[in-house]
Protein backbone atom coordinates (compact mmCIF):
# COMPACT_ATOMS: atom_id res chain seq x y z
CA UNK A 1 0.00 0.00 0.00
CA UNK A 2 1.35 3.47 -0.87
CA UNK A 3 0.87 4.97 2.57
CA UNK A 4 -0.35 3.45 5.82
CA UNK A 5 -1.46 6.28 8.09
CA UNK A 6 -4.12 7.04 10.68
CA UNK A 7 -7.52 8.47 9.64
CA UNK A 8 -7.20 7.29 6.03
CA UNK A 9 -9.72 4.87 4.53
CA UNK A 10 -7.38 2.87 2.26
CA UNK A 11 -4.76 2.64 5.00
CA UNK A 12 -7.39 1.33 7.39
CA UNK A 13 -8.59 -1.23 4.83
CA UNK A 14 -5.08 -2.49 4.07
CA UNK A 15 -4.02 -2.64 7.71
CA UNK A 16 -7.22 -4.35 8.75
CA UNK A 17 -6.86 -6.89 5.95
CA UNK A 18 -3.28 -7.67 7.00
CA UNK A 19 -4.31 -8.21 10.60
CA UNK A 20 -7.26 -10.39 9.58
CA UNK A 21 -5.06 -12.53 7.31
CA UNK A 22 -2.53 -12.92 10.12
CA UNK A 23 -5.28 -14.38 12.33
CA UNK A 24 -6.28 -17.07 9.78
CA UNK A 25 -4.80 -20.45 10.66
CA UNK A 26 -3.80 -21.29 7.09
CA UNK A 27 -1.69 -18.09 6.74
CA UNK A 28 1.89 -18.47 7.96
CA UNK A 29 2.91 -14.81 8.01
CA UNK A 30 1.87 -11.39 6.72
CA UNK A 31 4.04 -8.36 5.94
CA UNK A 32 3.00 -4.83 4.95
CA UNK A 33 5.10 -2.82 2.47
CA UNK A 34 4.60 0.94 2.28
CA UNK A 35 6.38 4.13 1.31
CA UNK A 36 5.34 5.90 4.49
CA UNK A 37 3.37 4.75 7.49
CA UNK A 38 2.75 5.86 11.06
CA UNK A 39 -0.28 3.61 11.56
CA UNK A 40 -0.01 0.88 14.18
CA UNK A 41 -0.37 -2.46 12.38
CA UNK A 42 -0.23 -5.83 14.09
CA UNK A 43 2.21 -7.27 11.52
CA UNK A 44 5.74 -6.33 10.38
CA UNK A 45 5.82 -3.13 8.29
CA UNK A 46 8.62 -2.47 5.76
CA UNK A 47 9.29 0.97 4.29
CA UNK A 48 10.55 1.34 0.72
CA UNK A 49 10.69 4.36 -1.56
CA UNK A 50 11.05 2.56 -4.89
CA UNK A 51 9.36 -0.46 -6.39
CA UNK A 52 12.75 -2.05 -7.12
CA UNK A 53 13.92 -1.71 -3.52
CA UNK A 54 10.73 -3.40 -2.34
CA UNK A 55 10.82 -6.10 -5.01
CA UNK A 56 14.46 -6.97 -4.29
CA UNK A 57 14.01 -7.19 -0.52
CA UNK A 58 14.15 -10.68 1.03
CA UNK A 59 10.85 -10.02 2.83
CA UNK A 60 9.09 -9.43 -0.49
CA UNK A 61 10.79 -12.34 -2.23
CA UNK A 62 9.62 -14.84 0.37
CA UNK A 63 5.94 -13.92 -0.10
CA UNK A 64 3.71 -16.43 -1.88
CA UNK A 65 0.91 -13.91 -2.48
CA UNK A 66 1.33 -10.16 -2.99
CA UNK A 67 -1.78 -7.95 -2.65
CA UNK A 68 -1.32 -4.52 -4.25
CA UNK A 69 -3.76 -1.97 -2.82
CA UNK A 70 -4.53 0.74 -5.37
CA UNK A 71 -6.31 4.03 -4.76
CA UNK A 72 -3.94 6.60 -6.24
CA UNK A 73 -0.48 6.59 -7.80
CA UNK A 74 2.27 4.94 -5.78
CA UNK A 75 5.62 3.89 -7.19
CA UNK A 76 5.50 0.65 -5.21
CA UNK A 77 2.59 -0.53 -7.36
CA UNK A 78 4.92 -0.79 -10.37
CA UNK A 79 6.52 -3.86 -8.77
CA UNK A 80 3.52 -5.83 -10.06
CA UNK A 81 5.22 -5.92 -13.48
CA UNK A 82 8.22 -7.75 -12.03
CA UNK A 83 6.28 -10.45 -10.18
CA UNK A 84 6.96 -13.88 -11.64
CA UNK A 85 3.59 -15.70 -11.68
CA UNK A 86 5.38 -19.06 -11.46
CA UNK A 87 6.74 -18.05 -8.02
CA UNK A 88 4.31 -15.48 -6.62
CA UNK A 89 0.64 -14.69 -7.06
CA UNK A 90 -0.15 -11.00 -7.58
CA UNK A 91 -3.58 -9.60 -6.69
CA UNK A 92 -4.86 -6.03 -7.00
CA UNK A 93 -7.28 -4.65 -4.41
CA UNK A 94 -9.01 -1.79 -6.21
CA UNK A 95 -10.25 1.11 -4.05
CA UNK A 96 -10.95 3.56 -6.89
CA UNK A 97 -9.75 7.15 -7.10
CA UNK A 98 -11.14 10.66 -7.28
CA UNK A 99 -11.85 11.39 -10.99
CA UNK A 100 -9.34 13.66 -12.67
CA UNK A 101 -12.04 16.30 -13.30
CA UNK A 102 -12.63 16.62 -9.54
CA UNK A 103 -8.98 17.09 -8.52
CA UNK A 104 -8.55 20.21 -6.42
CA UNK A 105 -4.94 21.09 -7.37
CA UNK A 106 -2.19 20.37 -9.91
CA UNK A 107 -0.37 17.95 -7.62
CA UNK A 108 -3.48 15.80 -7.26
CA UNK A 109 -4.19 15.97 -11.00
CA UNK A 110 -0.72 14.60 -11.81
CA UNK A 111 -1.01 11.85 -9.19
CA UNK A 112 -4.48 10.83 -10.38
CA UNK A 113 -3.45 10.75 -14.03
CA UNK A 114 -0.37 8.64 -13.28
CA UNK A 115 -2.43 6.35 -11.08
CA UNK A 116 -5.02 5.80 -13.79
CA UNK A 117 -2.26 4.75 -16.20
CA UNK A 118 -1.18 2.17 -13.61
CA UNK A 119 -4.60 0.66 -13.06
CA UNK A 120 -5.63 0.73 -16.72
CA UNK A 121 -2.50 -1.27 -17.58
CA UNK A 122 -3.58 -3.95 -15.09
CA UNK A 123 -6.31 -4.96 -17.55
CA UNK A 124 -3.70 -6.75 -19.65
CA UNK A 125 -2.17 -8.66 -16.74
CA UNK A 126 -3.53 -12.12 -15.82
CA UNK A 127 -4.15 -11.13 -12.21
CA UNK A 128 -7.18 -11.27 -9.96
CA UNK A 129 -8.67 -7.86 -9.10
CA UNK A 130 -10.64 -7.47 -5.87
CA UNK A 131 -13.08 -4.74 -4.99
CA UNK A 132 -16.08 -4.23 -2.71
CA UNK A 133 -18.80 -2.23 -4.46
CA UNK A 134 -20.94 -2.46 -7.56
CA UNK A 135 -19.77 0.95 -8.76
CA UNK A 136 -16.11 -0.10 -8.49
CA UNK A 137 -16.91 -3.30 -10.39
CA UNK A 138 -18.43 -1.24 -13.19
CA UNK A 139 -15.33 1.00 -13.32
CA UNK A 140 -13.09 -2.07 -13.64
CA UNK A 141 -15.23 -3.43 -16.47
CA UNK A 142 -15.06 -0.05 -18.21
CA UNK A 143 -11.25 -0.03 -18.18
CA UNK A 144 -11.15 -3.52 -19.65
CA UNK A 145 -10.77 -5.91 -16.72
CA UNK A 146 -12.69 -9.10 -17.65
CA UNK A 147 -15.65 -9.86 -15.39
CA UNK A 148 -14.31 -13.30 -14.54
CA UNK A 149 -11.17 -11.78 -13.02
CA UNK A 150 -13.07 -9.47 -10.63
CA UNK A 151 -13.74 -10.73 -7.12
CA UNK A 152 -15.85 -9.26 -4.30
CA UNK A 153 -13.63 -8.88 -1.23
CA UNK A 154 -14.80 -6.29 1.33
CA UNK A 155 -12.95 -5.06 4.39
CA UNK A 156 -14.20 -5.18 7.95
CA UNK A 157 -16.69 -2.51 9.05
CA UNK A 158 -18.08 -3.39 12.46
CA UNK A 159 -19.81 -1.35 15.16
CA UNK A 160 -18.18 -1.33 18.61
CA UNK A 161 -21.47 -2.55 20.10
CA UNK A 162 -23.81 -5.36 19.03
CA UNK A 163 -26.30 -4.18 16.44
CA UNK A 164 -29.60 -2.95 17.95
CA UNK A 165 -28.05 -2.91 21.43
CA UNK A 166 -29.89 0.32 22.18
CA UNK A 167 -26.82 2.17 23.44
CA UNK A 168 -27.41 5.28 21.34
CA UNK A 169 -29.24 8.13 23.07
CA UNK A 170 -30.21 10.88 20.68
CA UNK A 171 -31.46 14.40 21.33
CA UNK A 172 -35.18 14.46 20.56
CA UNK A 173 -35.33 18.28 20.53
CA UNK A 174 -33.08 18.59 17.46
CA UNK A 175 -32.32 16.80 14.23
CA UNK A 176 -28.60 16.08 14.31
CA UNK A 177 -26.91 15.56 10.93
CA UNK A 178 -23.42 14.14 10.48
CA UNK A 179 -21.12 14.40 7.45
CA UNK A 180 -17.84 12.43 7.51
CA UNK A 181 -14.99 12.76 5.04
CA UNK A 182 -12.01 14.74 3.81
CA UNK A 183 -12.65 18.45 3.36
CA UNK A 184 -12.07 18.68 -0.38
CA UNK A 185 -14.36 19.98 -3.14
CA UNK A 186 -15.02 16.46 -4.48
CA UNK A 187 -16.85 15.60 -1.25
CA UNK A 188 -19.49 18.27 -1.92
CA UNK A 189 -19.42 19.69 1.61
CA UNK A 190 -20.15 23.22 0.41
CA UNK A 191 -23.45 22.02 -1.05
CA UNK A 192 -24.39 20.64 2.37
CA UNK A 193 -23.54 23.96 4.03
CA UNK A 194 -25.74 25.75 1.49
CA UNK A 195 -28.53 23.24 2.16
CA UNK A 196 -28.32 23.94 5.87
CA UNK A 197 -28.99 27.58 5.15
CA UNK A 198 -32.43 26.45 3.95
CA UNK A 199 -33.29 24.34 7.00
CA UNK A 200 -34.95 25.30 10.25
CA UNK A 201 -33.36 26.04 13.60
CA UNK A 202 -33.95 22.50 14.87
CA UNK A 203 -31.30 21.13 12.48
CA UNK A 204 -27.66 20.85 13.61
CA UNK A 205 -24.69 19.72 11.53
CA UNK A 206 -21.35 18.16 12.52
CA UNK A 207 -18.72 17.95 9.77
CA UNK A 208 -16.08 15.39 10.78
CA UNK A 209 -12.90 15.26 8.71
CA UNK A 210 -9.19 14.58 8.84
CA UNK A 211 -7.66 18.01 8.43
CA UNK A 212 -4.25 16.48 7.60
CA UNK A 213 -5.62 14.96 4.37
CA UNK A 214 -7.94 17.87 3.59
CA UNK A 215 -7.47 21.04 1.55
CA UNK A 216 -6.78 23.94 3.93
CA UNK A 217 -8.14 26.54 1.55
CA UNK A 218 -11.40 24.61 1.17
CA UNK A 219 -11.83 24.42 4.94
CA UNK A 220 -11.41 28.19 5.06
CA UNK A 221 -14.04 28.62 2.31
CA UNK A 222 -16.43 26.42 4.26
CA UNK A 223 -15.99 28.30 7.53
CA UNK A 224 -16.42 31.66 5.77
CA UNK A 225 -19.63 30.45 4.13
CA UNK A 226 -20.95 29.13 7.45
CA UNK A 227 -20.34 32.57 8.94
CA UNK A 228 -21.91 34.38 5.97
CA UNK A 229 -25.06 32.27 6.33
CA UNK A 230 -25.18 32.92 10.08
CA UNK A 231 -24.89 29.20 10.83
CA UNK A 232 -22.16 29.30 13.48
CA UNK A 233 -24.67 28.08 16.07
CA UNK A 234 -25.76 25.14 13.89
CA UNK A 235 -22.58 23.91 12.18
CA UNK A 236 -19.36 22.71 13.79
CA UNK A 237 -16.19 21.14 12.41
CA UNK A 238 -14.40 18.36 14.31
CA UNK A 239 -11.40 16.08 13.83
CA UNK A 240 -12.33 13.00 15.89
CA UNK A 241 -10.40 9.86 16.68
CA UNK A 242 -12.08 6.50 16.04
CA UNK A 243 -13.86 6.33 19.41
CA UNK A 244 -15.07 9.92 19.15
CA UNK A 245 -16.28 9.32 15.61
CA UNK A 246 -18.48 6.44 16.67
CA UNK A 247 -19.93 8.61 19.44
CA UNK A 248 -20.84 11.14 16.75
CA UNK A 249 -22.61 8.43 14.75
CA UNK A 250 -24.57 7.37 17.80
CA UNK A 251 -25.62 10.97 18.49
CA UNK A 252 -26.66 11.65 14.88
CA UNK A 253 -30.11 11.10 13.42
CA UNK A 254 -29.05 11.37 9.77
CA UNK A 255 -25.75 10.73 7.96
CA UNK A 256 -25.36 12.76 4.77
CA UNK A 257 -22.90 12.21 1.93
CA UNK A 258 -23.16 15.13 -0.55
CA UNK A 259 -20.20 13.71 -2.47
CA UNK A 260 -19.52 14.03 -6.18
CA UNK A 261 -17.78 10.64 -6.22
CA UNK A 262 -17.65 7.60 -3.91
CA UNK A 263 -16.13 4.19 -4.49
CA UNK A 264 -18.06 2.73 -1.53
CA UNK A 265 -18.98 5.33 1.15
CA UNK A 266 -18.04 3.87 4.51
CA UNK A 267 -19.75 6.71 6.46
CA UNK A 268 -23.18 5.71 5.13
CA UNK A 269 -22.54 2.08 6.12
CA UNK A 270 -21.31 3.10 9.58
CA UNK A 271 -24.29 5.41 9.93
CA UNK A 272 -26.72 2.58 9.20
CA UNK A 273 -24.91 0.36 11.71
CA UNK A 274 -25.27 3.10 14.34
CA UNK A 275 -29.02 3.43 13.74
CA UNK A 276 -29.00 6.56 11.55
CA UNK A 277 -30.94 7.27 8.39
CA UNK A 278 -29.00 8.34 5.30
CA UNK A 279 -29.12 10.86 2.47
CA UNK A 280 -26.72 10.72 -0.46
CA UNK A 281 -26.28 11.81 -4.04
CA UNK A 282 -26.59 9.99 -7.35
CA UNK A 283 -22.77 9.98 -7.70
CA UNK A 284 -20.54 6.92 -7.64
CA UNK A 285 -21.58 4.06 -5.37
CA UNK A 286 -24.05 6.10 -3.32
CA UNK A 287 -27.16 4.88 -5.20
CA UNK A 288 -26.08 1.31 -4.37
CA UNK A 289 -25.42 1.88 -0.66
CA UNK A 290 -28.18 4.36 0.27
CA UNK A 291 -31.30 2.21 0.44
CA UNK A 292 -34.96 3.27 -0.03
CA UNK A 293 -36.90 4.90 1.43
CA UNK A 294 -33.71 6.88 2.13
CA UNK A 295 -32.95 9.10 -0.84
CA UNK A 296 -30.24 10.14 -3.23
CA UNK A 297 -30.36 13.51 -5.02
CA UNK A 298 -28.28 15.09 -7.81
CA UNK A 299 -24.86 16.23 -6.55
CA UNK A 300 -24.47 19.98 -6.21
CA UNK A 301 -28.19 20.68 -5.75
CA UNK A 302 -28.55 22.30 -2.31
CA UNK A 303 -32.31 22.71 -2.60
CA UNK A 304 -32.97 19.05 -3.31
CA UNK A 305 -30.49 18.03 -0.62
CA UNK A 306 -32.26 20.17 1.98
CA UNK A 307 -35.64 18.72 1.01
CA UNK A 308 -34.30 15.15 1.25
CA UNK A 309 -32.88 15.86 4.72
CA UNK A 310 -36.28 17.15 5.83
CA UNK A 311 -37.96 14.00 4.54
CA UNK A 312 -35.34 11.81 6.22
CA UNK A 313 -36.08 13.60 9.51
CA UNK A 314 -39.56 12.07 9.45
CA UNK A 315 -37.97 8.60 9.60
CA UNK A 316 -35.48 9.11 12.45
CA UNK A 317 -35.83 6.69 15.30
CA UNK A 318 -36.52 3.88 12.83
CA UNK A 319 -33.24 2.03 12.16
CA UNK A 320 -33.05 0.85 8.56
CA UNK A 321 -33.52 -2.94 8.19
CA UNK A 322 -30.64 -2.86 5.69
CA UNK A 323 -28.30 -2.50 8.71
CA UNK A 324 -28.59 -6.21 9.44
CA UNK A 325 -27.48 -7.12 5.90
CA UNK A 326 -24.55 -4.69 6.08
CA UNK A 327 -23.50 -5.99 9.47
CA UNK A 328 -23.32 -9.53 8.07
CA UNK A 329 -21.62 -8.52 4.80
CA UNK A 330 -18.80 -6.52 6.41
CA UNK A 331 -18.29 -8.65 9.54
CA UNK A 332 -14.83 -10.03 10.30
CA UNK A 333 -16.08 -13.60 9.85
CA UNK A 334 -17.62 -12.85 6.44
CA UNK A 335 -14.53 -11.00 5.21
CA UNK A 336 -12.23 -13.78 6.42
CA UNK A 337 -14.39 -16.31 4.57
CA UNK A 338 -14.17 -14.31 1.33
CA UNK A 339 -10.39 -13.98 1.67
CA UNK A 340 -10.04 -17.73 2.13
CA UNK A 341 -12.26 -18.44 -0.86
CA UNK A 342 -10.31 -16.05 -3.08
CA UNK A 343 -6.93 -17.33 -1.90
CA UNK A 344 -8.09 -20.97 -2.02
CA UNK A 345 -6.68 -21.64 1.43
CA UNK A 346 -9.60 -23.58 2.82
CA UNK A 347 -11.33 -22.83 6.11
CA UNK A 348 -11.54 -19.33 7.55
CA UNK A 349 -10.90 -20.60 11.08
CA UNK A 350 -9.17 -17.86 13.00
CA UNK A 351 -6.86 -17.75 15.96
CA UNK A 352 -8.48 -16.43 19.18
Structural notes for this entry:
There is one protein chain. This protein has about 350 residues and is an alpha/beta fold. It folds into 2 domains: about 170 residues, Rossmann fold (3-Layer(aba) Sandwich), CATH 3.40.50; about 150 residues, Glycogen Phosphorylase B (Rossmann fold). It contains 13 helices and 14 strands. The chain has a 6-stranded parallel sheet with strand order 11-10-9-12-13-14, sandwiched between helices. Helix 6 crosses helix 11.
What is the total tally of β strands? Answer: 14
* Spatial shape: globular
Q: Number of folding domains?
A: 2
Number of helices: 13
CA-to-CA gap between the ends?
A: 27 Å
Spans of 5+ residues with little confidence (pLDDT < 50)? none
In N-to-C order, the SSE pattern is EHEEEHHEEHEHEEHEHEHEHEHEHHH
CATH architecture of the largest domain: 3-Layer(aba) Sandwich
- What structural class should be given to the helix and strand makeup? alpha/beta
Please indicate the percent range of residues in DSSP E strands (runs of 2 or more). 15-25%
Mean pLDDT: 91
Would you give the CATH topology of the largest domain? Rossmann fold
CATH class of the largest domain: Alpha Beta
Rg (CA only): 21 Å
CATH superfamily of the largest domain: Glycogen Phosphorylase B
The profile of the biggest β sheet is: 6 strands, parallel
Widest beta sheet: strand line-up: 11-10-9-12-13-14
Helix content: 25-40%
Amino acid sequence: VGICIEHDAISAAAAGQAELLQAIDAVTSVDVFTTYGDRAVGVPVHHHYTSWSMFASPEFQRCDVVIFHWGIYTQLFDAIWAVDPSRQRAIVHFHNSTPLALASNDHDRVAIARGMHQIEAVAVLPVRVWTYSEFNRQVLLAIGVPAERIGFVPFVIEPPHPLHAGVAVRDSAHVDVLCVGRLVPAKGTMTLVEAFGMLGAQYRLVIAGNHETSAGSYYEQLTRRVAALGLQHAVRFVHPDDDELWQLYEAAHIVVSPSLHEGLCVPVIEGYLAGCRAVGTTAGNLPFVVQPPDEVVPPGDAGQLAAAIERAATRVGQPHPYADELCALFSADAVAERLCEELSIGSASRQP
